[in-house]
Design brief:
With 232 residues, this protein is of the alpha/beta class. The chain has two domains: 79 residues, Translation factors (Elongation Factor Tu (Ef-tu), domain 3), CATH 2.40.30; 107 residues, Rossmann fold. Helices cover 19% and strands 34% of the residues. The strands form two sheets. A seven-stranded mixed sheet has the order 10-9-8-7-11-12-13, with helices on both faces. A six-stranded antiparallel barrel has the order 1-2-5-4-3-6. The chain is globular, with a radius of gyration of 17 Å. It binds flavin-adenine dinucleotide (FAD) and FE2/S2 (inorganic) cluster. The site of flavin-adenine dinucleotide has 22 residues, from strand 4, strand 5 and helix 1.
């Protein structure tokens, strides 16, 4: 473990923040770090850029992180895990809620690679969006209709011609990802899809077994990014 200082905190809402570290890590989109919030727990968080994590407060540790101050220190292990495989061709990125975190990093990486990136990004309500101005070719959805189209991510996916894309990347709530795996299978595009999945993690390095999936794969080593084919 090494220690990094918090350089800057960007608060998106009461429960959402992006925390920038004092140093860039050598990492690829889809990888995660184990973040030790001193006095609280060590938790897995996807990198939202080489020097940031984007966090939603759901419990004590994430709440502390969202309210952390510049100059405080965090213990870091990693980056760990299997990243997304990039493309310089056409890509569709599908994000639900805080699932946007690893996809921010992926979006910026693909744009730099010269890819043609389209996005579908859905949240509950307007204040849940993170960096919406950054995504130029994006369908925004809210469940309460407070911004963009009223509805769910899955409604927008049904309107896309999925054959147009070289790769499809997904991260979001479990129910959304399960629906998409089934839909991609029926549409014949499962082979080009990749999903970032969440499991309860302790060691982050493939030793403790707490993150093993139904198929016996360790989300911290073989994942957190899996191909749609592996997950179906
Ligand atoms: C690889 C990976 C990457 C992640 N990336 C992000 C990220 O970029 N941003 C972010 O905000 N969160 C991310 N998470 C989820 C984050 O780790 C949990 O929200 C966090 O551990 C909760 O800690 P807590 O002490 O605040 O809450 P706790 O009190 O531990 O839990 C609060 C609630 O969250 C649920 N929860 C806790 N851990 C997880 C988990 N691993 N998966 C699903 N539900 C969980 C609990 O069941 C409980 O209902 C990621 C998880 C994994 C495995
Ligand atoms: S977190 Fe320990 S094996 Fe994955």
């Amino acid at each position: 473990m090494f220690t990094l200082k918090v350089r800057e905190v960007e608060r998106h809402s009461k429960s959402l923040a992006t925390i920038y570290f004092s140093k860039k890590l050598k990492a690829y989109p889809g990888q995660f770090v184990m973040v030790n919030v001193f006095g609280f727990e060590e938790i897995p968080l996807s990198l939202s850029s080489p020097n940031s994590v984007t966090v939603k407060a759901v419990g004590k540790t994430t709440e502390k992180l969202v309210n952390i101050q510049e100059g405080e220190s965090l213990g870091i292990r990693g980056p760990f895990g299997n990243p997304f495989s990039p493309t310089s061709d056409s890509a569709l990125i599908i994000a639900g809620g805080i699932g946007i975190a690893p996809l921010i990093f992926l979006h910026d990486f693909l744009v730099k690679c010269g890819a043609d990136v389209r996005m579908i990004y859905g949240v509950r309500s307007r204040s849940d969006f993170i960096f919406p101005q950054r995504f130029l070719n994006c369908v925004f959805l809210t469940e309460d209709g407070s911004f963009g189209i009223k509805g769910k991510v899955t409604d927008a996916v049904k309107k896309e011609n999925l054959n147009e894309f070289e790769k499809i990347y997904v991260c979001g709530p479990k129910a959304m990802m399960e629906w998409l795996i089934d839909y991609f299978e029926r549409r014949g595009v499962i082979e080009k899809s990749e999903f970032s999945v969440e499991r309860y993690m302790r060691c982050g390095i493939g030793v403790c077994g707490s993150c093993v999936t139904e198929k016996g794969l360790r989300a911290c080593v073989e994942g957190p990014v899996f191909s749609g084919k592996e997950l179906r």
